[in-house]
Amino acid sequence: LRIFSSYVHIVVAKTELLTNNFEGNSKVIDVGGDGTNNTGPTASSQRDAALAAGITTINGIVISPSQTLIDHYNQQVLGGSNPFLEQASTFQDFENAVFTKIQREISSVVSNSPTTQPQTGGGSSSVPEPASLILLGGSLFGLAVRKKLKVAHK
User: Fold this and answer.
1) Taking the alpha carbons of 132, 89, 72, 38 in that order, is the dihedral positive or negative?
2) What are phi and psi for residue 62, nearest 5 degrees?
3) Pair 50, 18: CB distance under 8 Å
């Protein structure tokens, strides 16, 4: 028996996010897997509890070509403000799906960054937070290094 329980992922992530002494503009949980809940409470009950406790968004990433699994995530796991689901049809597609997910998350952080008012003149310009730019650069650098290492080992 292989136990898969997205509700456990949500419970653990919620606890960590709400008790870690860091303040952020959002608290996002990512749940990934290749199966539906097969033990314990429903994922939707824990999703709803996490959102009520202050979690902003719960996103998902599935590793399966199954529409049934995609429907499960859409109905039972995703929730909050602008959640999204990425799909990798196979485990070989997982790296690209994670890369796409990271790009989506970073672009939403950068597009939702606070704006600053110029010292003189009118209007405003959007300036991403330095941490957002560092996160974007670090993520892209890490993925590029991993890809080069994978090619070098072939």
Assistant:
1) negative
2) -110, 145
3) no
